[in-house]
Amino acid sequence: DSGVTQTPKHLITATGQRVTLRCSPRSGDLSVYWYQQSLDQGLQFLIQYYNGEERAKGNILERFSAQQFPDLHSELNLSSLELGDSALYFCASSVVGQGLFFGPGTRLTVL
Amino acid sequence: AQSVTQLGSHVSVSEGALVLLRCNYSSSVPPYLFWYVQYPNQGLQLLLKYTSAATLVKGINGFEAEFKKSETSFHLTKPSAHMSDAAEYFCAVNSGGSNYKLTFGKGTLLTVNP
Question: Using CB atoms and an 8 Å cut-off, which of residues 81-100 of chain A contact chain B?
Fold first, then answer.
């Protein structure tokens, strides 16, 4: 158990809809990272937050947005969903010198 | 820019045999390198990391990796494979410091045959 929690575990929705994925980092970790894992793209970095502020951005679509709240949990919002957005979405938190600790992921299926 | 190439998307070994999973990196700055393992339907678990200290890094579950700057490699090895090692393995690189925006390889699926 990495100490990073993600909800929900599974999400099934339709094209055009909007969903919110939630992540709580390990106790004491200030950074949250979001990654997308798909068969064709592999593991892609989406975005990083540090203590409530956006720190780095990767291959995140404009239809996607994220935020980190004062209690350090983070939400990833995906809107106008397309079939190609079906993937595993991972959240991770970091400890300096230790690397990333990943949550169990949210499997999103867009029908 | 950084990148990682994992040679071989699928490696199959017999139980008790040597495991060798290859990773080559490209980085314009001294890299930090990581190996992660992903079991079916689970998240990624850190196996080991290289952060510019000893070039031979020991990780969990009997795995180790050696950083070779001249070859830009960070191959993962285990002397004797166990059935429980069957999983997907990912090599990753970042530029160090406190930012862990990792760039991952495409992964290598390890199959262990009885």
Answer: 90, 92, 94, 96-100
